[in-house]
Amino acid sequence: MELLPRGPAEFGLAPYWERFFRQRGQRPFEWYGAFPELCPVLRKYVRPRDKVLVVGCGNSELSEQMYDTGMCEDIVNIDISDTVIRQMQERSRSKRPKMSYLLMDALQMDFPDAHFQVVLDKGTLDAILTDEEEATLAKVDKMFAEVSRVLQVGGRYLCVSLAQAHVLKKAVEYFSREGWVVRVHQVASSGDKQQFVLPIFVYVMTKFRKIPGSAPQILEICPEEQDKPMRVESAERLVAAVKDRQHYALLCSQLSKTPCREQLSLDLCDKESGKPRYTLHVVDSPSVKPSRDNHFAIFIIPQGRETEWLFGTEEGRRQLAASAGFRRLVTVALHREQHYEGMAGIQAELSGKVMELAPPGLPARQQVPFLSVGGDIGVRTVWHRDTSPLSGEYVIEDVKGDGTCYFRRLIFLRNRNVVQSEARLLAPVPLPGQKKRRKDKKKPSPAEPPAAIDKSYLCCEHHKAMVAGLCLLGGPDPLPGTPLAVLVVGLGGGSLPLFIHDYFSQARVAVVEIDPSMLEVATCWFGFSQGDRMRVHISDGLDYVAKLAAEVSVLPPAAPAQYDAVMFDVDSKDLTVGMSCPPPAFVEKPFLQKVKNILKPEGVFVLNLVCRDARLKESVLATLRDVFPLLYVRRIEGEVNEILFCQPSLEGRRDPAELGACARALEGALRQSGRPWDSSYALADMLQAIKIL
C-alpha cells in the first residue's frame, strides 16, 4: 500500500490526502511532535478560554489530547480531506461536544475576521512549502494572509515544523514584516532517537497592529534547555541558530550509533550572552578493550592549559584518551570570558548535555566520571583586555601551569588557542576571592613594571633553539663576553631580545616591531625595557631591513655589514595562508637577499617557521637554499615550529656533534655569568637534534 506522494508538490493537493486517509484508515498519523513533547510549549501560549483553530488537522490526536487534558475545549479543526473530517467527527462527536471538525481549505477560510485567539498548525506549512517556486510561495502567502485575517490582535499563530531553512525564513520574513513578534522554540526531545532524529520546532508568531514606517524586528529563539528567549538581530541569524541545533541533533544521533573516525568538536554557548562557554572534542579510542567501566569519560582541561600539546592538538588528545583508558573521551576547554563555580559546578552544568554524546553500548545508569589534572579546573586571571588596530583584540592573563608555577600570557583572540608570548612569574597571582593587586587599574603604569616577571626564563622551546643557534657564530672566545650586533624582528612580550640583552653582556640588540601596542604590552606587562644596548624601532620589518640593505649597498667594499645575527619571530596577520609565521613576504627571494646583505660573512639568520602547508613549506625551504648556501633546521618536538639557521657561507659548516660541543661551552659560560640559569635550557640538546638541509 503506497502512502508516499509521487512528488513533493502532492503534499499540498486535496486528492493526495483523500487517497492517503482512505488507505490509512482510522490509525492516527503523527508526522512529528507527539503531544507530551509539545505540551510544555503549547501551555505557554494556549489558555483554557481561548478559541483555537487547527489548520490541516489530519487524523492527529493533538486536538483530542488538548481537549482531554483541559488545556482548551473551544477548538475548531479544518482539513481539505473530506474522508479525514468524517473520520474525526465520528471519533469525537460523543466524547468532545465543544470541539468541531470542518471541511475547509486554510488558503480560503469562511470564518469572520479576528475570530480566533490561537491558530495551530502542525506540519501543514511544511507540507505546502515544499519548494520555492513562484506558485508555491503564492499559496503560502494566501495561507499566511488568511491566518492573519482570522486572528485577533494579540493572538498567536503556533506552527509546529521541522524548520527547513526556506520554510523558517519565509515565515519569519513574512510576519516580522507585518510587525509581528516572532519567537522560535526548540521542542525538548522525548529521548527516543530511533523515532525521529531531527529536532522539532514551534514558531510562535504574535500579532500586533502594524505600525507605519520601519518598526524594529523582534526575533527570538528559545533553546530546549531554557525558558528565557534569546534575541537575535536578523532572520538570517535566526535561521543559522536553528541550523546549528539541527546539526547538533544529527551529530548526537551519529555518535550514539557508531564510533567517530575523526575527532569532532563543538561549542556550547552561554545562555545569556550566546558566547562560547565550553569547547568540546569527542575522541574515540577503538583500540581500548571494552569493559563495564571504561566506555565514557569527560576530561575538564584546566583553565589556561588548553594551548598545551596534550590538550590543544588532535594527536595530543588522542594520546590523552588512550592513556586515560576510555573508549570515548570528551575533552572540555573552558573559555576565558566565562566564570565557573569549580569542578562540581561544571559537572552539574554539563552532566545532561554530555550524555547526549554518549557512545553506543553505554550501559544503562552508567556513572560517567569527570576527570582533570589534579582534580581542579585551574586558575586564570585576566588582567587586561584591549584592541590593537594591527593585531586585533588581545588579552593579558595569568594562568597556573603544571605544579606550582604561574605564567603570564599574551593571547591574540583571533587565534585564541595560540600563546603569542609567555613569561614565568616569580610570585603566584591571587586566587579567585583573594584581593588582587591594582584591582582599580586596567594595567600598571610604565613607571611600575610588574616585579613578578622572571626575566631569566624562556618559556618557548623555539626561543631556546634560537638562542642556541648563536653558537653558529663560532670563534674560540665565549660568546657571552663577545661584542655582538643582533637584529630581532618581532617583539611580542619581549622575552627573546631581553634574554639576549641580559645574558650576552656585550650584545647590542635592535628590535623591529610594526605594532606600537606590542611595545606598550611588553613594557607594562612583561618587564621589558630599553637602554643603551636595547632599542625598539616601530616600523614594518620589510621596510626596516630594506632601508638597512640600501645603506650597506653604498658602503665601501671593505666596510663590514652591520649584524652578527638576524632573527625573525614575527607572526602573520593573515590566517587564510597555511603559514602563520612569518608573513609570506618575509621569505620571498628578493627580501631574503636583503637579509643576507646586512649579515656579516660569518653571521647567522635565524627564522622561526610555522607552516602547515607542505607544498608552501617546501617552496620556502627551496627559496632559502637559493639565497643561503648553508642551512640547518631544528624541529620543535610536539609543535609545528621549525627553527631554520641560515648562513651566507659554507666555510662555517659544522656537524651536529661539533655544534653540540659549542652549545655546551656556551651553556657553561652562561651559567657562570652570575645570572639565574634554568636547567631546562639544554642548549646542547637543542643543537644535537639539528639537521643540515
From TrEMBL:
Record keywords, A-Z: Methyltransferase, Multifunctional enzyme, Transferase
Matching Pfam families: Methyltransf_31 (PF13847), Spermine_synth (PF01564)
Biased segments, Basic residues type: 434-444
Cellular component per GO, a single term: cytoplasm
Domain Methyltransferase residues, every copy: 50-170
Keyword Ion transport: no
Protein name: eEF1A lysine and N-terminal methyltransferase
Organism from which the protein derives: Nyctibius bracteatus
